[in-house]
Amino acid sequence: MNIVCIYRASCFSPNMEDCDTAIMNAVASRVQQAGHMVSCVHEEQLTLSDMKAADVVLTMGRLPHTIDCLQALESEGVKVINTPVSVRNSERKLFTQILMDEDVPFALSRLFPSNDPVSWNVFPCWLKKGEGYAEVAEDVVYVQNAERLAAYADCMRQRGISIIVVSQHLEGDLIKFYGVRGTPFFEWYYASDGHSKFGNETVNGASHHYPFSEQQLCDICNHAASVIGLDVYGGDCVVKENGMIQLIDINDWPSFSRCREQAAEMITNIAIQNDK
Predict the structure, then answer these.
(1) Domain of residue 133, residue span
(2) Is residue 206 within 8 Å of residue 176, measured between CB atoms?
(3) Is there a domain that residue 76 lies in?
């Protein structure tokens, strides 16, 4: 098979560019070792001609142009992981609505226009850019009162962001999770033990290691990925003192930094599983 691997634009890999590149390199290497033709391209330079002979596309891309190209390929029968629809669904405003509509255990959240006052007394909370994906620290901010919420919302408005998401802050153990849907692979770790893009994990502080069901965590995360459409996914959740699990974030194709080799093996498997 001919397999094309697409690297994510650097703007979508804040403080994680090397790690994002490393997971795609690990997958590409395994696909090649399995006897398939592999070509790699950065999405900033992507054209349809780069993929004209592709049987499978493995993509971390998020640019609108990338998604449009992949939709065209998918309509011709090319297998795309993650699908263009699922990547679009991974925009915060979309996945927030999808998860709430599907009754996934998710932090209480609401969408607001950035040019209207936010009249929701849910402090402390998180104010998040609703459109696109987090690129800078100012896209996700912790807010403790209405005055600061209004100020940060206005800053987002001035940056051209029209939709914001306000989410209730959840006290408890912050956990990062990683999965490849349709495989046995699922990993998690306490956020306080790992790397942080913007340092927001410090708000929850050191982990208390509250007891919880790992199977329930896996089931919740896989269900969330399923309703969004993601095959390769990661995210964050909070385990409360009583063991209750609530998602706060999910994203398409994370870096898998702490479990890269295992994830790469599973992603390779789903890429070539229909090979004859």
Answers:
(1) 108-168
(2) no
(3) yes
Question: 84 in the Ramachandran plot: left (φ > 0), alpha (ψ -120 to 50) or beta?
Answer: alpha
Chain position carrying tokens 């590409």 = 28
What backbone phi and psi angles, to 5 degrees, belong to 2?
-100, 120
Please state the φ and ψ torsions of residue 94, each to the nearest 5 degrees: -80, -50
When pLDDT is cut at 50, 70 and 90, the band that residue 203 belongs to is: confident
Q: Which helix (H) or strand (E) holds 19?
A: helix 17-33
Residue 40 forms part of a structural domain: yes
User: With 90 as the cut, is the pLDDT of residue 3 above it?
Assistant: yes
- Whether residue 200 is contained in a domain is answered as no
Give the chain's radius of gyration (CA, Å). Answer: 19
**Residues 33-49: tens digit of each pLDDT:** 999 999 999 999 988 88
In the chain, beta strands by DSSP E: 2-7, 37-42, 56-59, 79-81, 109-113, 125-129, 140-143, 163-168, 173-180, 186-190, 232-239, 245-252
pTM, to two decimals: 0.94
Domain boundary among 142, 168, 194: 168
Total tally of structural domains belonging to the chain: 2
Which tokens sit at 227?
């309703």
Of the three residues 143, 168, 193, the one that is the final residue of a domain is: 168
Question: Domain holding 72: CATH number?
Answer: 3.40.50.360
